[in-house]
């Protein structure tokens, strides 16, 4: 049950009759009581004439998923089975981070009809966002009072990772294409394969001219002869069907928030960009999210399915406040690949103490695989290190320098153990990791 | 797919099967709300009722009215009035002067008893009492009241003692001895009775010389033959608790029962002659105020009713990355670890200098100092002091050194960027280029 502002206004309007009636035999008390009685009776009548919100049938029509920062339309179908017109307000309540808007809407459903109530969801957090409850306040014909009921209508929408770094994908794909069909011998190494023969164009490395093919071509039939020779060059392409394994750390240290993004989100972004790129390059990508157990795993997917499965797997994963069990990672990698692979560990490298188990495990991986640690650095540390304005900030700068030094030392330790490190600020890490992958690709180190 | 649970019986304790696909009405029906809150409603109502009952039974919470006509408490006067009624006297208790006038209208001789323990009547009103009744009995009147009535009795002070009759008034004679509690009065023109001291050894002292004493318990005036005024200083004599003591009852009945009618007038706030707030404001102000109160309540209900419950959500923890850094900074600052802080800054500077000069990570302090000296032209000793040896004694010194470190960094970077001369080439070329600052993949230069 609820009253409206009109009811309040009605009560307030009683000033007129009360002033008029106060000198009649009713007296002051009588006049006020009479007016209040009139108000209550009218409200009760209105209440009795209102449609029942309990009898309403509700159905949801929600899209399955939405990318973070994008909007989706969640529809709630309201059926009025009764004989009275349902008019009033409806609130389709979602979890706050689903970003539902508008909060409340007018509702007018004639008898035995159905209306759609559309709520725009603009989530600001990854994961599964649920609809909590739908509340209907059905007002009477005079709009003085209404009946209210909250109805739980289950519904959920999966909020996928934003993949904001996809804007870096075209430029990286262009670089990848440049690797294809490249003639320079510098590129040729153990990681490149013979691709095709084509005519020489200016700028090609003369060392890539295939003289035998040139001779065959110029000596062939149908040629008029003459001095103009057509030179043929060999082209190369990067090797394909390599294996990329990404292990995303979902442990305690990934919960930290840097520049309005948790580290695990940055790791997801990097993973998505790298996966998209490697998949186009013809490599196999397997991803596992791990802390003390495997929180999510995508294996054997290719093409569009790979990205779809990746975002769906990543969507509900939040960091656990656990220390990541790095000693289990080598066996996890073994279970995912048997051949040599590029193993990307997306985890922060902070202090020697926190990464001890990672460093202890690393030789097992580097013995067989090419290991890259993708680490998010905090731009706030660099800022703090540069700020020397007063005494307190000098001490802060000292502490920041110390933290940077720690990270540096951990990175050096990783390199000493045969791994490689990509460290960058949250927005720069995904393209940095992609560039490193392309560099390996070009160098044939995969 | 959606099933509606409209009947209250079927909606009864809905188990949290929210995860199922069925829609569930979570708002309880009115019947359920009533049933659920019945216990507490009954309990609260019962407690309230009990409290009201206790108040009614004990009469606490009500101010005891002295000489109240219906007051059964010790200070009331119900006893004597009941006795008078039983004796056939028409007793009327009134609260205002106007009511008193109305009650006194008529031909039968009447007694008007006036007691004003709360001093509500002003002098003017006291004056109006004059001549209203054949017998006017004033219970402990104040001085200004007596003045207004033209009586010369003067209240002296409170007394509480047993006095014997010392005058010839018949009703006083009948009473004999009274237990007088109240105020003593002195008067020259009226006849005084029950003067303090008459019960004691000095009983024959004249009342005129008795100004130092507490005065008399009863002063009576005969005015123009037919109207009498009695000033009863011993107001306690008509109270329930003292009426039975000594000759109090005889005195009271004699004073009050003289005429067939008795008007018992205890002024109430309605007697106040100054206009009250009620009279000054128009009649509609109070009801409009109540109506506004009701409007406020309605508005509170209107705004207070939520459109459904608050939705709660479990949010992941937020961990700040800089907490360790801040904590360490505070530790440095609190302990004054200046050297340690400065060393951290120096290490950072050395690292950046080595990067800027392309010296490589493995280069030692001496290499860096020499290279910096070569590029900036500063002396090696001064650089060494700044970069290694100097120990700051005060925070001021620490801040100054930190500024000089930054300045050095900026200078070196500027020189490296500006003149790509032989100096830098030498400096960069001297140590073996073990690692570029950020280890680029070997083919990095092939990228466009």
H/E order of the elements of chain B?
Answer: HEHHEHEHEHEHEEEEHEHHEHHHHHH
For the report, how would you describe the main beta sheet of chain A? Answer: 7 strands, mixed
Oligomer: heterodimer
Which strand-content bin applies to the residues of chain A?
25-35%
Which structural class best describes the helix and strand composition of chain B?
alpha/beta
CATH topology of the largest domain in chain B: Rossmann fold
CATH class designation of the largest domain in chain B: Alpha Beta
CATH class of the largest domain in chain A: Alpha Beta
The structural class of chain A is alpha+beta
Mean pLDDT over the full residue set of chain A: 88
Computed CA radius of gyration of chain B, to the nearest angstrom:
52 Å
| Uncertain segments of chain A | none
- Percent of residues in helices of chain A comes to 25-40%
The name of the CATH superfamily of the largest domain in chain A reads von Willebrand factor, type A domain
Number of alpha- plus pi-helical segments of chain A: 12
CATH architecture of the largest domain in chain A: 3-Layer(aba) Sandwich
Our count of helices of chain B gives 16
- What percent strand of chain B? 5-15%
Report Rg of chain A: 34 Å
What characteristic shape of chain A results from the CA principal axes?
Answer: elongated
Number of strands of chain B: 11
Write the layout of secondary structure elements.
The complex is a heterodimer of chains A (446) and B (448).
Chain A lengths: L1 E2 L1 H9 L1 H7 L5 H23 L7 E5 L3 E3 L4 E9 L5 E9 L5 E2 L3 E5 L3 E9 L5 E13 L5 E8 L3 E5 L8 H11 L12 E8 L11 H8 L13 E7 L4 E7 L6 E3 L2 E2 H18 L3 E7 L3 E5 L4 H12 L14 H8 L5 E5 L9 H11 L3 E7 L2 H8 L4 H26 L3 E5 L4 H15 L3
Parallel strand pairs in A: 3-11, 14-17, 14-19, 19-20, 20-21
Antiparallel strand pairs in A: 1-10, 2-4, 4-8, 5-7, 5-9, 6-8, 9-10, 9-11, 12-13, 15-16, 17-18
Chain B lengths: L7 H4 L12 E2 L4 H29 L19 H9 L3 E5 L2 H8 L5 E6 L7 H6 L6 E5 L3 H6 L5 E11 L5 H6 L1 E10 L4 E5 L20 E8 L3 E6 L15 H9 L4 E5 L11 H4 L4 H20 L14 E2 L2 H13 L2 H19 L8 H12 L3 H10 L5 H24 L3 H8 L19
Parallel strand pairs in B: 2-10, 3-4, 3-10, 4-9
Antiparallel strand pairs in B: 5-6, 7-8, 8-9
Helix pairs in contact in B: 12-15, 13-14
Organism (chain A): Microcella pacifica
Protein name (chain A): DUF58 domain-containing protein
InterPro entries (chain A): DUF58 (IPR002881)
């Amino acid at each position: 049950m609820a009253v409206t502002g009109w009811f309040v206004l009605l009560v307030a309007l009683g000033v007129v009759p009360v002033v008029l009636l106060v000198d009649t035999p009713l007296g002051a008390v009588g006049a006020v009581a009479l007016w209040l009685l009139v108000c209550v009776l009218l409200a009760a009548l209105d209440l009795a004439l209102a449609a029942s919100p309990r009898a309403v049938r509700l159905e949801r029509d929600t899209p399955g998923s939405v990318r973070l920062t994008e909007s989706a339309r969640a529809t709630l179908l309201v059926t009025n089975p009764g004989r009275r017109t349902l008019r009033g307000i409806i609130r389709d309540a979602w979890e706050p981070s689903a970003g539902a808007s508008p909060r409340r809407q007018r509702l007018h459903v004639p008898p035995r009809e159905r209306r759609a109530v559309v709520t725009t969801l603009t989530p600001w957090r990854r994961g599964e966002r649920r609809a909590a409850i739908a509340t209907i306040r059905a007002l009477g014909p005079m709009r003085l009072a209404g009946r209210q009921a909250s109805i739980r209508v289950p519904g959920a929408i999966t909020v996928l990772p934003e993949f904001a770094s996809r804007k870096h994908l075209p430029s990286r794909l262009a670089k990848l294409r440049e690797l294809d069909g490249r003639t320079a011998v510098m590129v040729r190494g153990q990681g490149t394969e013979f691709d095709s023969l084509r005519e020489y164009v200016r700028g090609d490395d003369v060392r890539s001219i295939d003289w035998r093919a040139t001779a065959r071509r110029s000596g062939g039939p149908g040629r008029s002869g003459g001095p103009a020779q057509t030179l043929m060059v060999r082209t190369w392409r990067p090797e394909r069907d390599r294996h990329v394994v990404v292990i995303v750390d979902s442990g305690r240290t990934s919960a930290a928030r840097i520049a309005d993004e948790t580290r695990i989100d940055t790791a997801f972004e990097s993973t998505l960009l790298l996966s998209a790129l490697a998949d186009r390059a013809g490599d196999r990508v397997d991803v596992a999210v791990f802390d003390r157990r495997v929180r999510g795993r995508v294996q054997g997917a290719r093409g569009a399915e790979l990205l779809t499965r990746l975002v769906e797997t990543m969507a509900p994963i939040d960091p656990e406040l656990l220390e990541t069990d790095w000693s289990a990672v080598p066996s996890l990698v073994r279970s995912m690949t048997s051949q040599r692979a590029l193993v990307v560990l997306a985890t922060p490298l902070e202090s020697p103490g926190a990464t001890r188990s990672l460093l202890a495990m690393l030789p097992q991986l580097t013995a067989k695989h090419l290991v890259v640690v993708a680490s998010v650095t905090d731009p706030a540390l660099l800022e703090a290190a540069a700020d020397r304005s007063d005494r307190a900030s000098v001490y802060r700068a000292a502490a920041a320098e110390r933290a940077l030094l720690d990270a540096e030392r951990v990175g050096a330790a990783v390199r000493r153990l045969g791994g490689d490190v990509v460290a960058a600020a949250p927005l720069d890490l995904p393209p940095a990791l992609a560039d490193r992958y392309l560099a390996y690709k070009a160098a044939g180190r995969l | 797919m959606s099933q509606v649970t409209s009947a209250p019986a079927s909606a009864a304790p809905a188990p949290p099967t929210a995860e199922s696909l069925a829609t569930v009405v979570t708002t309880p029906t009115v019947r359920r709300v009533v049933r659920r809150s019945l216990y507490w409603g009954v309990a609260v109502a019962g407690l309230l009722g009990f409290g009201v009952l206790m108040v009614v039974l004990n009469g606490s919470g009500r101010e005891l009215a002295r000489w109240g006509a219906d007051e059964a408490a010790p200070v009331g006067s119900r006893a004597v009035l009941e006795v008078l009624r039983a004796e056939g006297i028409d007793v009327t208790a009134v609260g205002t002067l106007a009511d008193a006038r109305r009650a006194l209208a008529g031909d039968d001789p009447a007694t008007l008893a006036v007691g004003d323990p709360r001093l509500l009547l002003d002098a003017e009103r006291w004056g109006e009492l004059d001549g209203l009744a054949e017998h006017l009995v004033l219970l402990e009147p104040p001085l200004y009241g007596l003045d207004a009535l033209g009586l010369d009795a003067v209240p002296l002070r409170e007394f509480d003692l047993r006095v014997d009759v010392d005058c010839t008034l018949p009703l006083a004679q009948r009473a004999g001895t009274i237990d007088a509690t109240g105020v003593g009065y002195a008067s020259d023109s009226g006849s005084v009775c029950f003067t303090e001291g008459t019960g004691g050894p000095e009983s024959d002292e004249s009342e005129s010389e008795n100004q130092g004493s507490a005065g008399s318990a009863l002063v009576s005036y005969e005015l123009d033959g037919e109207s009498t005024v009695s000033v009863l200083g011993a107001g306690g004599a008509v109270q329930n608790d003292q009426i039975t003591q000594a000759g109090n009852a005889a005195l009271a009945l004699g004073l009050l029962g003289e005429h067939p009618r008795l008007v018992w007038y205890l002024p109430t706030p309605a007697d106040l002659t100054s206009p009250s707030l009620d009279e000054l404001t128009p009649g509609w102000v109070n009801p409009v105020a109540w109506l506004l109160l009701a409007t406020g309540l309605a508005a509170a209900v209107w705004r207070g009713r939520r459109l459904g419950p608050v939705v709660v959500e479990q949010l992941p923890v937020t961990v700040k990355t800089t907490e360790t850094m801040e904590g360490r900074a505070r530790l440095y600052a609190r302990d004054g670890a200046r050297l340690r802080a400065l060393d951290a800054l120096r290490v950072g500077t050395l690292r950046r200098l080595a990067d800027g000069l392309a010296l490589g990570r493995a280069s030692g302090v001496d290499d860096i100092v020499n290279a910096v000296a070569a590029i900036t032209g500063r002396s090696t000793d001064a650089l060494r002091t700044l970069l290694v040896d100097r120990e700051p004694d005060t925070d001021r010194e620490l801040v100054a050194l930190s500024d000089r470190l930054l300045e050095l960094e900026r200078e070196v970077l500027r020189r490296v960027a500006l003149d790509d001369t032989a100096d830098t080439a030498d400096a960069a070329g001297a140590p073996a280029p073990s690692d570029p600052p950020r280890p680029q993949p070997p083919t990095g230069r092939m990228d466009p």
